[in-house]
From TrEMBL:
Encoding gene, per UniProt annotation: ligA
Family according to the record: Belongs to the NAD-dependent DNA ligase family. LigA subfamily.
Portion held of the full protein: 1 to 332 of 672
Protein name, UniProt field: DNA ligase
Residues involved in NAD(+) binding: D34, A35, E36, Y37, D38, S83, L84, E113, R136, E175, K291, K315
Task of the protein: DNA ligase that catalyzes the formation of phosphodiester linkages between 5'-phosphoryl and 3'-hydroxyl groups in double-stranded DNA using NAD as a coenzyme and as the energy source for the reaction. It is essential for DNA replication and repair of damaged DNA.
Organism of origin: Fervidicola ferrireducens
Active site, per annotation: K115
Domain of life assignment: Bacteria
């Protein structure tokens, strides 16, 4: 492709992706499937790779997708809440491992987690007491959802610190989601009431959490899985896995399918084993997340403007199925 043609297509793709980002992140109302969205993003990434001089800082490839809704109080994250880069097959997973070992050597462990399909929140505890919660927003600035997250039963309001480890500040990150069965019931009720339906559990969860009236959130059976550390004062961890074990111990809800591996072949097998098994879960996952375990190695690897280099999302192959929800058509 000639540079002038690439320039034209890049402009088109950016406009399209920005439009879909707005529908998805701001209005919680996507109009295309995630697989279709990922294809557009891939095309843009490839063109920008071929023509690096056409990359601009405001390209959707360089920024975290969402933006905070203006009617929420805005919260500046102490540590940015980033996106994840994607691997769509085994080859791309192995490319990730190669990039990691080039920086940190071959002695590397990985933690593999389910990629819960909900929305990210950061929750801050001060001296073990629930203080604030925020959405990811554009990664730097999120929405204050303190009162809404407080209504989620799996979010403890007080942490159970052991006497020797009681951080003054602990900011954890996790995914708020709506279980599949509750999503089905919610849409059934909305249909009876003549209200617009949610396209999928992820959008129902986001729409339920980003409410100005926390009483509406309280009526929706949202749940949370905590998957990472944001920021802490008064405690240090050497590995991601150790932090997750600590979170479990102090009463935070951590997903039970998280596994630590020291061989990348086992990482790959575990990821692929969930291609089918995921349908048995009571909540939706859209992939697996692979994270370098050592926090020192994570620091060495660092991040791009949009996502850490020490983690990757393995996305499941898209299933060829078309669902029609009233006037919303979602191909999954
Ligand atoms: P992402 O969803 O691919 O990955 C980052 C997010 O993963 C985190 O913010 C967190 O919320 C989540 N996550 C779940 N489990 C996790 C775990 N165990 N550890 C860490 N993170 C975990 O990235 P993104 O930038 O939020 O969104 C991009 C994706 O959103 C696209 O690939 C597409 O699937 C979807 N999308 C769809 C549309 C559409 O129109 N259909 C539009 C925009 C985005």
């Amino acid at each position: 492709m000639k540079k002038s043609e690439a320039e034209k297509r890049i402009k088109e793709l950016r406009e399209l992706i920005n439009y879909h980002n707005k529908q998805y992140y701001v209005y919680d109302n996507p109009v295309i499937s995630d697989a279709e969205y990922d294809k557009l993003m891939r095309e843009l990434e490839e063109l920008e790779r071929k023509f690096p001089e056409l990359v601009t800082p405001d390209s959707p490839t360089q920024r975290v997708g969402g933006e905070p809704l203006p009617y929420f109080t805005q919260v500046v994250h102490r540590v940015p809440m980033m996106s994840l880069s994607n691997a769509f097959d085994e080859g791309e997973l192995r490319d990730f491992h190669r990039r990691v070992t080039e920086v940190v050597g071959n002695d590397v462990e990985y933690v593999v987690e389910l990629k819960i399909d909900g929305l990210a929140v950061s929750i801050t505890y001060e001296n073990g007491i629930y203080k604030t919660a925020a959405t990811r927003g554009d990664g730097e600035v999120g929405e204050d959802v303190t009162q809404n997250v407080k209504t989620i039963k799996s979010v403890p309001l007080k942490l159970d610190f052991p006497p020797d480890k009681s951080p003054a500040i602990l900011e954890v990150r996790g995914e708020v989601y709506l279980p599949k069965e509750d999503f089905r019931k919610l849409n059934e009720e909305r249909e009876e009431q003549g209200l617009p339906l949610f396209a999928n559990p992820r959008n129902a969860a986001a729409g339920s959490l980003r409410q100005l009236d926390p009483k509406v959130t309280a009526k929706r059976p949202l749940a949370v899985f905590i998957y990472g550390l944001g920021y802490a004062e008064g405690i240090e961890f050497e590995t991601h896995y150790e932090a997750l074990q600590f979170f479990k111990r102090i009463g935070l809800r951590v997903n039970p399918h998280i596994v630590l591996f020291d061989k990348f072949d086992d990482v790959v097998d575990y990821c692929l084993s969930w291609n089918e098994k995921r349908h048995e879960l009571p909540y939706e996952i859209d992939g697996m997340v692979i994270k370098v375990n050592s926090l020192e190695q994570q620091r060495l690897l660092g991040s791009t403007a949009k996502s850490p280099r020490w983690a990757i999302a393995y996305k499941f192959p898209a299933e060829q199925k078309t669902t029609v929800i009233k006037d919303i058509i979602v191909r999954v």
